[in-house]
Amino acid sequence: MAINFTFIGKMSIGKDTEKKQAYVEKEHKNEKTDEVKGHSRRLNLVVKCGEDTFFPTVGGYMGNVIYSLAKADNKSITFPATKRNEFLSEIADFKKYSFVDKANEVRYDFTTEYDLALCVYQLLQDETYKDTVFRVNGEVEYSTYTSEGVEKTFKNYKVTKIYTTASDTEQQAVVSTDLYVEEDCFDESKVESDSLLTIMGYVPVYDSAKKKLCGDGTRGYFEKYEFDLSTDEDKRDKQVEALKRKFAPNTENGEGYLSKTGLHVKLINRTDAVEFDESMLSEDELLDIELGITTLEELKEFYSGGKSNSYTQRQVMCGFKPNYLGGTQKSMYTVADLISDGNKREDLFVDFGGSVDDIDDIFGI
Fold first, then answer.
1. What pLDDT, in 10s, does the model give residues 108-148?
2. Cβ neighbours for 273, distance < 8 A, ≥ 6 positions apart
3. Which residue of 118, 143, 149, 253 has the lowest C-beta tally within 10 Å?
4. H or E segment to which residue 41 belongs
5. What is the C-alpha to C-alpha distance for residues 314 and 141, in angstroms, rounded to an integer?
6. Residue 258 burial by CB count (10 A; 0-12/13-18/19+): exposed, middle or buried?
7. Cβ contacts of residue 18 below 8 Å, gap of 6+?
């Protein structure tokens, strides 16, 4: 059920702000007994994938007991946190949290994301990795919060594994996700004007709170993905028809059930810089030039990448997961199963590129 992401780009530690520090450690105590019940670490990162910038996090809560999966049979395994290093060899590889630098033959594996956070924090302070291109893998976490009476959705890109990679590797940000769709899952309003087809559906996320109430704990979050169509009218029409065949509903379970597919989605999150022009200078900047505090040439150099307050955020479908190349599959869910009130949540704001600074301890760490 996990929604996986891969960011390929240059990585650095996020900046400290008035609201939050980039790296935080906390000790958690029982309010009644004052006994320490666990610890947490969180590290805010910045990954620049070419023109696009993302803000993943690494870290989490570590209690006195660790739960994982055994390498031998993938069954549950538990052990005391104080002995976690002794159990590292017994854990399944995909459950380990890792930093791998093949070029320098460096590898760090951990049983917890708590330990990975400290490792990454220490390594990125070294100039060794200043211009390194990394492949950052992890899972996308969804959560909801209420702002001014409106429920909104927040995404957190939670890092699980980091690898160094060749400097000429294509830098990009891609998410792989399952998607549950209805029969009318297309918005064709921009097909003719912008050569864009919008695909709508629900991404499945495990919700432990819902699990306690009913079902298997699967919760659906409404998403929209764009598909870039050809500007050639004939080819564009053929693309739309082909996609409709790929997303044709699977009716094996009868009417009312959603169909399941799987997509690869490219993420775009960039500032739309325009070429610098003197007319863009603020009154304060013009005054600084007049007073000799700075020069026009210095400001031109500062804004060499352009100056703009507009941003582009897109989620662009770029392919199907292998199991869905032949079309959709049946599912056991209806919209009501995934969304408690049975309504599409088109009013939810989905932020896939913003800073986490505006959300205060949304995951309790």
1. 999 999 999 999 999 999 888 989 999 999 999 998 888 88
2. 305, 306, 307, 308
3. 149
4. strand 36-49
5. 18
6. buried
7. none
pTM across the whole model? 0.83
What secondary structure does DSSP assign to 178-199, as a single string? EEEE-TT-EE-TTHHHHSEEEE
Cβ-based neighbours of 100, under 8 Å, separated by 6 or more: 106, 107, 108, 161, 162, 163, 164
The answer to whether 341 and 119 are in contact (CB under 8 A) is no
Structure tokens, 313: 């955020």
The angle formed by the CA atoms of residues 355, 4 and 340, to the nearest 5 degrees, is 80
User: What is the reported pLDDT for 151?
Assistant: 82
The conformation of residue 17, written as its DSSP 8-state character, comes to -
Longest CA pairwise span in the chain (Å): 75
3-state SS assignment for residue 305: coil
Beta bridge partners of 70: 91
Q: Is the torsion defined by CA of 2, 55, 317, 218 positive or negative?
A: positive
Find the helix or strand (DSSP H, E) in which 269 lies.
strand 259-271
Q: Looking at the predicted structure, is the pLDDT value of residue 331 above 80?
A: yes
Query: How far is 165 from 178, CA to CA, in rounded Å?
Result: 27
Q: Please check whether residue 40 is in contact with residue 81, taking contact to mean a CB–CB distance below 8 angstroms.
A: no
Q: How far apart are CA 133 and CA 8, in angstroms?
A: 7
> 341 pLDDT exceeds 70?
no
What secondary structure letter does DSSP report for 128? G
State how far the Cα of 22 lies from the Cα of 52, in Å rounded to an integer.
20
